[in-house]
Amino acid sequence: MHQYDYIIIGAGAAGLMLADAMISDDFFAGKSILLLDKDTKQTNDRTWCFWEKGEGQFDAIVNKQWNHIYFGGKQFSKRFNINPYTYKMIRGIDFYRTLLQRIETHPGFVFKQAEVTEVLDDGDIVKVSTSTEIYTGRKVFNSIFNYKMATYQSKYPVLQQHFLGWFVKTKKSVFDTDQATYMDFSIPQKGNTRFMYVLPTSENEALLEYTLFSKDLLPKEEYKNAIKSYLEKDLNCSEYEIIETEMGSIPMTCYDFQEHHTENIRYIGTAGGWAKPSTGYTFASTARKIPVLLEYIKTKKPLHSLSFKNRFWFYDLLLLDVLYKDNANGYHIFETLFKNRSPKLIFKFLDEKTSLPEDLKYILGCPKKPFMRALLKRMF
């Protein structure tokens, strides 16, 4: 049985950010840290995007950034200059390689490829079992997510942000290299909240993602057909090559993951409820929570006592209540918001950095009736 001070399960955004933060802090000097993941993290399996003012901690691995975004709706569409923000993209492979190279050279740090089968907290120590080995740790941070963690209950709605992405190379120039298509709701909604998301890296290369906010996944062919139709009909492009693909599903829920934590086990990342419930954005949310968690670890208090819940949690809950009840009209909420409010305020609100007067201004930019009904239902 191999013993460590800290075990991190999962080498995704949360796991690697936490490992990197630990090795950069003198508090963890001399401590043994094990990172486990079933994958070697040698492929480009995902893309993370976020908005940010000025320079940031991940700029060295930002693959592309944009100064403008495009919002497309049924009745309102507009290209926005998002200054002082820029919209940034990081490729998964660049993130994995950079952080793993940095942390693997640190004394006391070990990365092992293994699939975790069981995690048990006996009160004094945590036992982590894989198919071949058993490890023990004083504190364990687990980023393995299973939808059953949230769907067994009915108090909080659970939607999915699910998508298929194609990174394509076209024969002719098609894309505006300084504009990311943030949401294009001009496509058929088919009873759900559906939009296209386009991230150009050159005039003839871009990542296109067909994205839904809904309860259930689609047959894979439906995602493919939607991207193909958008390329051919909306972008007037019939000649292209698919270079890479990515597919995923991000939970959208205000369910409190607190009950899954124990004194010595803390769920992090998506498994800890760190995905922004109203948008599914996880990368920037995780980057903001890691320093808080790191300082909390130093207090040596039980891991289940830390809470990230705030007033924005309730705002997100109301939106999810509205989308869960009437998913077909989701496009109308976002169209009304972008018509009435600037992306600067929207981004600041979604970053949970607005003041109460700014909160009110944002909220009043949304359709009022569905949110009032959701508020009254939650109150009574």
Brief overview, please?
The chain has 380 residues and is an alpha/beta fold. The chain has helices spanning 13-23, 92-104, 148-151, 220-234, 283-299, 311-325, 330-340, 343-350, 356-363, 368-379; strands at 2-9, 33-37, 47-53, 62-66, 68-72, 77-81, 85-91, 109-113, 116-121, 126-130, 134-142, 158-170, 179-184, 193-202, 205-214, 240-253, 265-267. It has ten helices and 17 strands.
Describe this entry's structure for a reader:
With 380 residues, this protein is an alpha/beta fold. It folds into three domains: 2-46 and 90-148 and 254-305, FAD/NAD(P)-binding domain; 158-252, D-Amino Acid Oxidase, subunit A, domain 2 (D-Amino Acid Oxidase, Chain A, domain 2), CATH 3.30.9; 311-379. The protein has ten helices and 17 strands. It has helices at 13-23, 92-104, 148-151, 220-234, 283-299, 311-325, 330-340, 343-350, 356-363, 368-379; strands at 2-9, 33-37, 47-53, 62-66, 68-72, 77-81, 85-91, 109-113, 116-121, 126-130, 134-142, 158-170, 179-184, 193-202, 205-214, 240-253, 265-267. The strands form three sheets. Strands 1, 2, 8, 9, 10, 11 and 17 form a seven-stranded mixed beta sheet that branches. Strands 6-5-13-14-15-12-16 form a seven-stranded mixed beta sheet, sandwiched between helices. Strand 13 (179-184) and strand 14 form a beta hairpin. The longest helix has 17 residues, at 283-299. The chain is globular.
